[in-house]
């Protein structure tokens, strides 16, 4: 029993850290966001809402410059001011931002925030256990290896979530009559828009799949839909 106490303490610590992070993020979003009201996006969001079967899809604008979308742990969906500025400059279309909203709705619908809480807790426990064990045999670099392994695991799980949210969004976009073309078109420019050097970074350390891989996954999904018999 007593041998399990350190592991239990790590799990409790990881859970507490996740709860604190979620609380801190909620406060940040409350203070730096506002409801989205944009006539350009209203028709697209209306089609998504109809496909989901709800009166409307509330979206908020997070007032930061980076281009990104966000699904908060409390289920709210955000587009950053950077994305809205890109829309103003003609760098993205309303349909492409609709694809971003659909993706974030996928994270919410698939319960990724809850799953990340469990993953975050487990990864912290794994990190500490590995650091303790490896530190005995590999002094000086054991902790570094433990951090590398835990980070690689976290990145792999995050990439899995992104693929799942992409697939959910693709299905919603097709149901809404928008199709996956805007989703794929945005991915072709996403690295350039965000300034992310994803093409040169090793895939196993990335928290998001590389854009070409995401496009390929969507096209594979579409091919599977075409092969499946329809009622």
Describe the structure.
Helix content is 66%, strand content 6%. By secondary structure, the chain is an alpha+beta fold. It has one domain. The chain has a four-stranded mixed beta sheet with strand order 1-2-4-3. Strand 3 and strand 4 form a beta hairpin. Helix 4 crosses helix 7 and helix 7 runs antiparallel to helix 8. The protein is globular. The model has no long low-confidence stretch (mean pLDDT 81).
Number of domains: 1
Number of helices: 8
Our estimate of the beta-strand percent is: 5-15%
Give a short account of the largest sheet.
4 strands, mixed
Instruction: Write the element-wise H/E pattern from the N-terminal end onward.
Output: HEHEEEHHHHHH
The gist of it:
The chain is α+β, with helices and mostly antiparallel strands.
SSE blueprint:
Blueprint: H1 5-31, E1 33-35, H2 42-52, E2 59-62, E3 69-71, E4 77-80, H3 81-88, H4 94-109, H5 112-137, H6 142-175, H7 181-194, H8 211-227
Parallel strand pairs: 2-4
Antiparallel strand pairs: 1-2, 3-4
């Amino acid at each position: 029993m007593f041998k399990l106490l350190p592991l239990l303490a790590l799990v409790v610590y990881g859970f507490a850290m996740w709860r604190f992070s979620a609380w801190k993020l909620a406060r940040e979003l409350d203070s730096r966001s506002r409801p989205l009201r944009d006539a350009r996006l209203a028709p697209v969001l209306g089609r998504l809402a109809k496909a989901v079967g709800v009166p409307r899809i509330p979206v908020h604008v997070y007032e930061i410059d980076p281009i990104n979308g966000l699904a908060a742990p409390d289920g709210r969906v955000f587009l950053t001011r950077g994305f809205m500025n890109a829309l103003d400059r003609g760098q993205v279309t309303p349909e492409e931002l609709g694809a971003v909203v659909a993706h974030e709705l996928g994270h919410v619908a698939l319960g990724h925030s809850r799953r990340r809480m469990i993953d975050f807790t487990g990864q912290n426990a794994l990190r500490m256990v590995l650091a303790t064990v490896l530190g005995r045999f590999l002094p000086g670099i054991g902790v570094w290896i433990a951090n590398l392994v835990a980070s690689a695991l976290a990145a792999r799980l995050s990439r899995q979530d992104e693929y799942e949210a992409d697939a959910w969004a693709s299905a919603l976009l097709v149901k809404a009559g928008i199709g996956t073309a805007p989703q794929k078109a945005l991915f072709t420019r996403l690295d350039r828009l965000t300034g992310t050097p994803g093409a040169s970074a090793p895939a196993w350390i990335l928290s998001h799949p590389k854009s070409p891989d995401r496009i390929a996954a969507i096209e594979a999904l579409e091919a599977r839909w075409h092969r499946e018999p329809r009622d």
